[in-house]
Write a structure and sequence with these properties.
Rossmann fold; globular; 227 residues; four-stranded antiparallel sheet; 10 strands; binds adenosine-5'-triphosphate; alpha/beta; six-stranded mixed sheet
């Protein structure tokens, strides 16, 4: 489903180049559940951003469902993103002046989905995430856990093939965090590929495949042995 070949991404701060991704090679198959761990600055978020087509690599090849993502226009990338990828971020990234339903519908609106279909899909997502009674609330009228549910509803509303989650429980208390993880894992059980970046070793250990990054390299790629 995903193939990264010799992916490099360098940031230059002053005259100091930083190899955030240093020749990354990675194959991800449909339905996998991966965690990405590693020290701060090791390249985890950069990897997620490249996978999510939010950032482009400087060199190397990224194939998504066999499609070479290189030299694509922003419109083509946006289409691929909206059809195939859902994002969940630590800071939720909800639009403050839009209510839950509007936040969930916003990416569909930008993608040109008609109002009736948007309404149908957002209703299903709101119910699925247990926040139907919060449809008209603004983000600042919601708890952290509820905000993350809205963000999750927005991520899955168009049934993406892969959900990329960057510290999805980072701002949540342990109970809300567990609920969000349970929801993500349910999605994975239904076949969605799931990749979670986390500093939380307990959360990372739940994934069936665990990647460890150091200095822009994947230094460990461990799979759970079945009992
Ligand atoms: N936009 C940018 N400009 C300059 N340097 C950047 C930029 N984004 C990331 N970096 C650098 O690239 C390296 C990798 O950053 P990245 O955010 O991917 O690490 P991370 O493992 O996700 O860290 P953390 O766990 O702290 O979130 C870091 O050294 C960071 O300072």
């Amino acid at each position: 489903m995903i193939k990264l070949i010799d992916i490099c991404k360098t940031f230059v701060l002053g005259d100091q180049p930083i190899n955030a991704l240093d020749k990354i090679n990675l194959d991800i198959h449909s339905g996998e559940y991966l965690s990405v761990m590693g020290p701060s600055g090791s390249g985890k978020s950069t990897l997620l951003n490249v996978l999510g087509l939010l950032d482009s690599p400087d060199s190397g090849q990224y194939l998504l469902d066999g499609i070479d993502t290189k030299n694509r226009s922003e419109a083509e990338l946006a289409k691929l993103r909206s059809e195939k990828i859902g994002f969940v971020f630590q800071a939720y990234h909800l639009v403050p002046r839009l209510n839950s339903r509007e936040n969930i519908e916003l990416p569909m609106m930008l993608a040109g989905v008609n109002a009736k279909q948007r309404r149908q899909l957002s209703t299903v997502a709101l119910e699925r995430l247990g926040i139907a009674d919060r449809a008209l609330h603004l983000p600042n009228q919601l708890s952290g856990g509820q905000r993350q549910r809205v963000a999750l509803a927005r991520a899955i509303v168009r049934k993406p093939e892969i959900v990329l989650a960057d510290e999805p429980t980072g701002n949540l208390d342990s109970r809300s965090g567990k609920e969000v993880v349970d929801l993500l894992e349910q999605l994975n059980n239904e076949g969605i590929t799931l990749m979670v970046v986390t500093h939380d070793s307990e959360l990372g250990a739940r994934a069936k495949r665990q990647l460890q990054m150091v200095d822009g390299n994947i230094v460990q790629d461990k799979r759970h042995e079945p009992c």
